[in-house]
UniProtKB/TrEMBL annotation:
The lineage of its organism: Eukaryota, Metazoa, Ecdysozoa, Arthropoda, Crustacea. It comes from the Eukaryota. GO terms for molecular function: oxidoreductase activity; potassium channel regulator activity; transmembrane transporter binding. Residues 136-305 form the NADP-dependent oxidoreductase domain. It comes from Cherax quadricarinatus. This is NADP-dependent oxidoreductase domain-containing protein. The keyword Cytoplasm does not apply. InterPro entries: K_chnl_volt-dep_bsu_KCNAB-rel (IPR005399), NAD(P)_OxRdtase_dom_sf (IPR036812), NADP_OxRdtase_dom (IPR023210). Keywords: NADP, Oxidoreductase. GO terms for cellular component: voltage-gated potassium channel complex.
Length: 320
């Protein structure tokens, strides 16, 4: 536990080994008691000794610590093991994409790598839509060729899917369209249910500079080409990769609405648009009775926080 000293510095305090919670072997038999940090370390470094511990996860994989227990741990100076997310946080797994979690035996290494992720993944609606996606998605910018082989790419996709991730993010520009081709081949080979995963792809950038942009012609042709490369009947979310100052916003929103009306995609959104550009798109959608965007993909890290934390929330509050 990290505690502050008088001088403002910080130090690491060691667990109190006198606590009966960590020393009483009878309590360790109780599945409601969490293992101590030393026990956890021993269990992880010596898997052969796991039978000597009655770890609560093995008996109740979706059991979480109560609030009273957590306060008791804080008062005693101990931090409990992070609680495992319960199935309640996912509500209905069938409706939110978690029903494809792998059911293979625990003896397989791939399941052991996924177990912690499966138990903690959560699903939420994408924007204000009814589309429920995993809070973790898999991007393909550096996941496919030429960065990795096709075999490695297939293994990455398989591990992610079986771990509960149901959102795959692509673009017509990723590896010159090769990312979409590889994902399409993998999805066809695996024959996963189409309702169990969601595909996002982006338009704007094209390998040829004179063919990029957000004209109605380019958007329609890019969507058709992406569907052909992905070997899918529709795209779940079409993302406009950048705003186009050379194209009227009315043309953009009418083109995306046309793609949705044709059944080529279900929703549309934006990527790295400013709050002003998103508001302009929203206003045009209302004015011309077009379908509004549901999501914005923003750059967000330690050195780029203003847009996501200040400008976008203010805009969303105005939109409602």
């Amino acid at each position: 536990m990290l505690s502050a000293a008088m001088g403002g510095s910080a130090r690491l305090s060691q667990p109190d080994v006198r606590s009966p919670m960590y020393t009483n072997p009878e309590q360790r038999e109780d599945p409601s008691v969490r293992l101590s940090h030393p026990d956890m370390r021993k269990l992880l470094t010596n898997p052969s000794e796991k039978e000597s511990y009655k770890h609560p996860v093995a008996r109740a994989p979706f059991t979480s610590i109560s609030e009273d227990e957590f306060k008791e741990h804080q008062q005693s100076g101990h931090l409990p093991r992070a609680p495992i997310a319960s199935l309640e946080c996912m509500e209905d797994l069938t409706g939110c994409g978690g029903d494809h979690v792998s059911t293979r035996s625990d003896s397989q290494a791939i399941v052991s790598r996924q177990s912690s992720l499966v138990s903690s993944l959560r699903y939420k609606p994408l924007g204000k839509s009814g589309l429920r996606v995993s809070q973790l998605g898999l991007g393909t910018w550096v996941t496919f060729s030429p960065q990795v082989s096709e075999e490695t790419a297939e293994e990455i996709i398989t591990v992610a899917y079986e771990a509960g991730i149901n959102l795959f993010d692509l673009s017509e520009a990723y590896s010159g369209g090769r990312a979409e081709v590889q994902l399409g081949n993998i999805l066809k080979k695996k024959n996963w249910r189409r309702t169990s995963y969601h595909v996002i792809t982006k338009v704007y950038w094209n390998s040829k500079g004179d063919e990029r942009g957000l004209s109605r012609k380019h958007i329609v042709e890019s969507v058709k080409a992406s569907l052909e490369r992905l070997q899918l009947d529709y795209i779940d979310v079409l993302i406009i990769h950048r705003a186009d100052d050379m194209c009227p916003m009315e043309e953009v929103v009418r083109a995306t609405s046309h793609c949705i009306d044709q059944g080529w995609c279900m929703y549309w959104g934006t990527s790295r648009w400013s709050a002003v550009e998103i508001m302009e798109a929203w206003t045009n959608c209302r004015q011309f009775n077009c379908i509004t965007p549901i999501v914005e993909q923003s750059e967000y890290h330690l050195f780029c926080r203003g847009k996501t934390e200040l400008y976008l929330p203010e805009m969303y509050n105005k939109i409602g």
